[in-house]
Amino acid sequence: MAGSTTRRGFLSTSAGASLGGAVAVTSGCVPAFTTAKAFANESANDRPGIGCIGVGSMGTGDAKGHAGFGDILAVCDVDDRHAERARNDETIGKGKADSYRDYRRVLERKDIDVVSIVTTDPWHVKIAIEALQAGKHVFCQKPLSLTLEENQLARAAAEKFPNLQFFIGTQQRSQKNLFLRAVNMVHKGLLGDIKKVTVGINGSPTGGPFPVEQPPKELDWEMWLGQAPKVDYRAKRCHYEFRWWYEYSGGKFTDWGAHHVDIAQWALKEDTKGKGPTKVDGTDAKHPVPFKDGYPTVDDRYNTSHDFAVNCTFPSGVEMVVTSRSDNGVLFEGAKGRMFVNREKITGTPIEEGWDKDQFTDADVVALYKGKPFEGHKQNFYRCIREGGLPVSDVFSHVMAMNTCHLAAIAARLGRTITWDPAAEKIVGDEQAAAFAARTPRAGYEIPRV
User: Fold this and answer.
1) Of 76, 124, 140, 218, which is the most exposed, with the fewest CB atoms less than 10 Å away?
2) pLDDT score recorded for residue 46
3) pLDDT value of residue 44
C-alpha cells in the first residue's frame, strides 16, 4: 500500500470494498489514508472530488472539514449568498469551485465522488438516495429523515448500494471520553440493569407572529420549500429557524433527539432493526400555538413543542423519558449506579470511582467503531470509503433512533399514547397517528423508491 494512490485507484478500491470487509493490514504495510490529511497527497489525482450541497452555517463547517480529505469541486445552495461565500472561502472553494442552485447539477458530474448534504431536513433523504443512484458516497447531516417512511426509504437505499458509504453526521459517536465511554459502561453492565434513561434535549423556542415578506432575490424560495407545502415566505421559517416548524422538522425531538436518543439507544442496544419502544406517551407535551388533530391552527408562529416529557417504554421494561425539563444530556439509571453524560462532562459515582478501570480499552473503542481505529468523525467516513466496512455513524442504527424521535413528535402533536410495532415498524391501533408516518410531497419533489 506504500506510495501514492491515484484517484482512479482510490475509486476502484472504494467501489470494490463491501460493507462486510476491510482492507487487510499486514506487518510492515502502512494502510493508506489513515491521518487527518488522509487524502491530501501531493498529486491532485490522489484526492476525491467533493460536492457540498447546502452551505449555510452548518454546511460551511462541514465543508471545511471535508476539504482536508479531498478537493471541493462544487458548492450548491438555494441561497446564492451561501453558495458564493463558500465558493470564495479559501478553506472551501478557494474561488475555483463551481457554484450551483440546483443540486442535480452536482450529482451529474462524473468527477465528484463524495457529496456532503447539509440542507434542511425535508431534502436529506431525497438528495441522499439520488446521490447513491448517481454513484456517490454520501455524508448527510442529522437528522436524516422527516418521517418514519423516509427512514425505511433511506435504509432500503443503503441496502441496495452496499459499496457506497452512507454516513450520518452524528458527531457525538466520535467523542471517546464522553459518549463512547458512557456507551461502553452500559454495554459492560457496570451500572447493572438499566431501569430508566432520561434524555434531556431542551424545548423549542417560541416566537411570532412573523410577517409575510418578499423572499430575498438571492433565494429560490420555491426550491427551498421542496416537498413541503407551498406557503408565503416568512424569514423566520427559513434557514436556521426551519427547525421550529413541524412542516420542515420535528423540533427538538429530531434536532437534539437525533444526537441524544441515538446515544441512549446505542447504549441500550436498541439500535438494530426490529428494536425500539412499543409505547410512546405524549400526553405531557405543550405547544406554543393551538393544535387540532395534530396540526397547528395558525401559520405565523413557531409551532414545535417547547415543553414536554415524552415517555418511551421498551419491551425490556426500560423507560426512556425524552424531555425539555432536565439538563441537556443523557442520564442512565441502573440497579448499581447512575451516570450522566453530555458534550461537556461525564459524571456520577461510577465515573468518580472509576468503575470502568481496565474495562475501557483500545479494543473496546475499536469494537464501538465497528472494527476501525478510533479517529475523528469525518476521518472515519473517508477511511470507510477507502477500506469498506460500516462507519461509526451508519444509516442502519441512525434510523432506529429516528424512529423513536418521530414517534415522540407524533405522540406530542396528538397529545396521547401511541403503540408501535417495532418488528413491522408501524403505528398500530390508531389510524390518525399512523397517518403521520408519511407525508405526500408536492408534485415534482417525490423521493425515489429503490
Assistant:
1) 218
2) 72
3) 55
Task: Identify whether residues 160 and 184 lie together within a single domain.
Answer: no
- Scan for cell 429503490, then name that residue: 450
Predicted confidence at residue 81, as pLDDT, reads 98
A 10 A CB-CB count for 136 gives 27
Residue 450 lies in a domain: no
Q: Which of 390, 384, 393, 389 is nearest to 39 (CA)?
A: 384
Here the CATH number for the domain that contains residue 217 is 3.30.360.10
pLDDT of residue 25: 24
**Residue 446 within any structural domain of the chain:** no
Question: What confidence tens digit (pLDDT) does each residue in 162-219 have?
Answer: 999 999 999 999 999 999 999 999 999 999 999 999 999 999 999 999 999 999 999 9
Q: Amino acid identity, residue 376? A: G
Cα–Cα distance measured from residue 209 to residue 211, given in angstroms and rounded to the nearest whole number: 7
How many domains does the chain fold into? Answer: 2
CATH number for position 105: 3.40.50.720
Is 1 a member of any domain?
no
| Residues of the chain scoring pLDDT < 50 | 1-42
Q: Are strands 194-200 and 279-281 parallel, antiparallel or unpaired?
A: unpaired
Residue 27 and residue 105 share a domain: yes
Q: Cα–Cα distances in Å, from 410 out to 4, 133, 200, 269?
A: 51, 31, 18, 23
Question: Is residue 147 located within the same domain as residue 182?
Answer: no
Closest CA to 316 of 197, 148, 152: 197
Nearest to 99 by CA among 87, 88, 111: 87
Position 445 in a domain: no
Question: Do 94 and 184 belong together in one domain?
Answer: no
